[in-house]
Design brief:
The radius of gyration is 22 Å and the shape is globular. Strand 9 and strand 10 form a beta hairpin. It is 26% helix and 24% strand. The protein is of the alpha+beta class. Strands 1, 2, 8, 9, 10, 11, 16 and 17 form an 8-stranded mixed β-sheet that branches. A 4-stranded antiparallel β-sheet has the order 12-15-14-13. It is built from 9 helices and 17 strands.
Amino acid sequence: MAQNEITHDLLIVGAGLAGTWAAMVAAREGVKDIGVLSKIHPLRSHSGAAQGGIAAALSNTRPVAGTGPRGPLEQIPPGDEPADSWELHMFDTIKGSDWLGDQDAIEILVKDATDVVYEYEHLGCVFSRTDDGRINQRRFGGHSAPRACFAADWTGHVLLHTVHEQALRHNVKFYSEWYCMDLIIEENVCRGVVAMNVLTGEIHTMRAKAVMFGTGGYGRAFGITSNAFANTGDGVAIAYNAGVPLMDMEFVQFHPTGLYRHGILMSEACRGEGGYLLNNTGERFMEHYAPEKMELAPRDLVSRSEQTEINEGRGVMSDGQGIFLDLRHLGREKILERLPQVREIAINFVGVDPIDAPVPIQPTAHYSMGGIPTTADGQVIADADGTPVVGFFAAGEC
């Protein structure tokens, strides 16, 4: 082996949920030598910032009879007609994409979702519970049934810790604070990466039989974003520089509840639990844009509606560039139980306690839906004809 050369059977770049889950599953399936490279500590990966929940059609809760789709939720007694299904989940996802989503990929996603949630539970993820002990579910934007499985408003944090512990249990080797600089691709075969140890500044060649990118999105390209400072699109840029074409880069999701001027995420759970969006007259303006789903319309619709209110002079704050998120009617007990992190963020960054006052928010760049093209199995595609880059895979937000 040459000096500064490291070899693995499988090398994963990125230690968020996509990368660490892949490492755990590969180890469990018998891959012996796995390395995971991350430019930050794995538990500081941006997956940990996901707050509100993970969607799966478990059908554990439903609106109380006679209260309408936005009424209070109750658990569904065993044996009753389910309120949700993978078909309904698939329809909501396709509709939420304005019919542009890859329907074959969406079908795989929604069918696998329930098994993945149960697997997280079996691995030790502590989900919030219904009174009879099942995984609790709440509404999310664009969902026609309560579908978001959650752990208070720390869902991503809990999921990331769970899967990281399992990867360590399977002896996965983590390279924390190592920076991927380039791909090694020879005759359309991926052989590894070039990486730098940030602590020492040493450059290393890291060779592997297969390389997977789980490097996250490019939200930091925007001035107002919910993304961590690490989300600079490195993996997407590295793949592009290596000759891999990118796709759908114009599709960037804006979340409607970013903290005013900061962009920090105020979880979807705020609206899932019943929060209101108000303009400077105190009006719940979503009745003009989505009278049925109101604040729980899909994120793009709510974000555009907020921006319309701002552009037409109905914004809040001194510059008129904000909207109010009002949680006061939820009550102190519910906010402390279901939205503790949201409350802490609002107090620390804008000095507002949502128990007592509405929180100023604005649309924030949130999720990169374009990036490296792959097959449904994550195999990176080299051209419009679908030619695979042998040994190169990608998953997650990149």
